[in-house]
Amino acid sequence: MPETRLPGTPPPAFPAKAPQGAGWLDHGFHVDNHSHTDGQLVYPASGALATTTERGTWLAPANRVTWTPPGFDHSHRFYGRTDVRLVVIPAHECGALVAHPSVFAVSPLLREALLALTDRPETRPGAHERLRAVVLDELAAAPEESLHLPEPRDDRLRAVTDLLHADPGRAITLAELGRTAGASERTLSRLFHTELGMSFHRWRTVLRIHHALVHLTNGHSVTDTAMACGWSNPSSFIEVFTEVVGQTPGRYQADVRQG
């Protein structure tokens, strides 16, 4: 997925060092690589968000929230006009969450707590701290649903993943990719498991889902998205998308439009 900065697009309207904030970002906005001394939750109340670190890319549609612990260099890309909600988790509270970047499912209560934290001024002392405690409690119980696309270090494996990034919908076998990369199918299969923690098939599926989310956010039909991203028919795409994302492509697209 290309990293695009829209010319003349203003930065997010988050006050410097504010504990939380909200703002609208246009499709394609890119926040350059940076890090924080505190943890950071970024929730796309509508649209979609990709967070990239040296460990790969995490994608969050509007039913997920991204988590970046302190000290991790990361960048963001936004797809669709995105209602961005930012909540800073002080470093001393970050032990309640996992120590690596991730994406969590957003329960109805977590969504309302995130919106309340970022929508309204603090009217009573300690109100935001109490809401943040609710957020942490919900995240501690929420499943990690990372839509994580790890990236390899091995040159042979990187040659393969670069080809797949360039054309995720291409029907090509691992053996065919291996001939281009100068490695056997068996070697590449082992590298996918040892370096990336998943099979070739699973990695390519997650890559295709990343691209499908962007296509759907851009208003392409479910059928056109399925064909562009490598599925032979819409029904198989809908089945896989629903299993990975947690909602049908049609429901996801309707939520994007409502946002």
TrEMBL record:
Organism this protein belongs to: Amycolatopsis sacchari
GO molecular function, one term: sequence-specific DNA binding
Residue span(s) of domain HTH araC/xylS-type: 158-255
PANTHER family, sorted: HTH-TYPE TRANSCRIPTIONAL REGULATOR NIMR (PTHR11019:SF199)
SMART domains, alphabetized: HTH_ARAC
UniProt keywords, alphabetically: DNA-binding, Repressor, Transcription, Transcription regulation
Name this polypeptide is given: HTH-type transcriptional regulator RipA
Xref: Pfam families: HTH_18 (PF12833)
Keyword field contains DNA-binding: yes
Keyword flag Acetylation: no
